[in-house]
User: Fold this.
Amino acid sequence: MKHGPSWFNVTSVTLGFAFLYLPIVLLVIYSFNASRLVTVWGGFSTQWYGALFQNRELLDAAWVTLRVALLSATAATFLGTLGAVALVRFGGFRGRTLFAGMIYAPLVMPEVILGLSLLLLFVAVGFARGFWTIVLAHVTFTMCFVAVVVQSRLVTFDRSLEEAALDLGAHPLTAFIQVTLPLIAPAVLAGWMLAFTLSLDDLVIASFVSGPGATTLPMKIYSQVRLGVTPEINAASTILIGLVTAGVIVASIVQKRRATRRLTFV
Amino acid sequence: MSVVAANPPAPAARSARPGGWGRRLVIAIPYLWLLLLFLAPFLIVLKLSFSTAAIAIPPYTPVFDLGAGWDAFLAKIQEFTTENYAWLAQNSLYWRSYLSSLQIALISTVLTLLIGYPMAYGMARAPAGWRPILVMMVILPFWTSFLIRVYAWIGILRREGLLNQFLLWLGWIDAPLAIQNTNTAVYIGIVYSYLPFMVLPLYAALERMDKTLLEAAADLGSTPLKAFWRITFPLSIPGVVAGCMLVFIPVVGEFVIPDLLGGSETLMIGKTLWSEFFTNRDWPLASAVAILLLLILVVPIVLFQNQQRKAEEAGR
Assistant:
């Protein structure tokens, strides 16, 4: 067995990453294209970014999306963390199998089913569709991702600290807030970010549960994409990609500082 | 139940402490949320799949009115029909949608595995200092918008797109290839979008592997290829299963990719459900389509959950 990178390994990793990144790089390059024809290079220009900020509808949609994502990610982080604690710390309570099932199922459930079922619930209880129904729907499906991320941290961390606090007479809630929470904070943060981006990104569920007056950015982009490829969409996409990339890099630096070398992914 | 046995004394000790109600609250809040917003909606979908479409608000019948009393309730029950399912069984469009979704999901899962495995393998064998960066580079596209990444392919694959321009410039083709709006474009889009879901579990399994096993095999005279098939691959099977489930299950119900990259030949059940709901406004039929889709996915979803539970217990 050879040690160090072999020719085969280097090639497969390089090709894999080329495949993952080339489309995004091309999309970003063509957002600076002066030509309206998206695939003909007409020189460098930032005009589409200017046009973007004139587009009232797109800006409104972005604002709705941002508010939905902030609210739903925060609520989902709260609920998901509670869920993870319940799964990991409270052993076998009655109905645990059902609970675990409900946590894991949305991770792989087709979005069309989640969207349809939530819409039918809102119609059945007579809840007016719009901003808040999108928030509720997003909390529901993203809290499961948070729960899995936090859970993977909870199962590996040293429990003796928490037990020491309890043995010294700390109230379980105090022990949780002062000992456990700081230790799992990186995972909670990662969970929040995951929930935030999932909400930012969601088209299918939002399309089902939204009502008049609440159009999210993905819904807006989708309706424009169906009409054809436009440089404005490239510009909007580039801004989103830039924001997310910056966020992920900052978060990973923060996390590295905390010296947690863990793969916090589903 | 093994979950209970794995942790026997702790729950009893914990509940004896003050704050047992707090424990109950921690369980109850997310539990109730999921019961109300995840499980209850499915029961409604199930109920609706036995209802009839109607021109009304909401566009189906029967609609239960709890205040109307028991007799009215019983009368409404009589209105349930199985005609939606009969319609699904008779109409070949639906059967072909289900079969073609399964076929597309299966083929693209295999393709993703074929591309993802060498990549994950190369990452797991990379110098240790590089690995966290490589993992992050796999995760990064996963954080960027799914819709945008699918959109990026339209610009590449369409008739006057970048791929055709490039191939024409190379002189490999004389006329633009028709890739956009075909199943080929759908496969490319799916493999591209779901590659991180395949690579990460594979990488986790391969990286964890005890490499001294391979040295032992080499010392005992095994060729690297044989050692791979006898040792590395069998040890990576949990990762293969997890990766394949994470790709296969959501792809069966995928909507965005077949809608944006596929053409009229692309039949996928997610798309059929969408148009049944939004274009035909037949909510009961859309519900029946969803219930059947769920039944098809029950086996892979249960497999996935068992896998998750095993991983969870192994982590304890």
In short: DSSP finds eleven helices and no strands in chain A. Residues 57-257 of chain A form a domain with the MetI-like fold fold (CATH 1.10.3720.10). Confidence is low (pLDDT under 50) at residues 260-266 of chain A.
